[in-house]
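Quick check before the chapter quiz. The format below is the same one you will see on the exam, so make sure you can read both the input and the output lines.
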Amino acid sequence: MHNRFLALCAVFLLAACAPKRIPGTELEDTGDTRAILGVMEQYRAALEARDAKAIRALVSPKFRDDGGTPDDPTDDLNAANLEPHLQALFQKLQNPKVDFNIRRVEFREDDIALAIYYWNASWRMPGLNARPQSDSELEQMVFQKVDGDWKILSGI
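Here is the expected output.
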């Protein structure tokens, strides 16, 4: 009986020492994790609103993205050309719907963080195809802390 009591006490002690999680996730509940999730939600909402200016405000001045083609620099995006690129894209796009399922947030040295997330998106591009389009994929978004705020460094 005494051993059971000690084992039970040990379990409760370990549970009390476990990191607090954001409800409904396996993500550790910290101010920085919540800030990253906030930026991702703002990005999601801006995509659905087709708001290139709002997305531009979320990226770091050092933002870089290779457009999925590391060997082809012609489609690379940076902080300077992101907004006009998105404005042109959003003119062709109708009814975007985006959902994120954030699987993990990791913090690295030098105020860098990674978010691993699964996204589901649907949209219409009448000039390309009359039928609604959809896609989903596991992605990684990289963040950098800039003047105390988390900004997207790559991965949009």
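If your answer matched, good. The beta strands are 64-65, 77-78, 94-108, 112-125, 129-146, 149-154.
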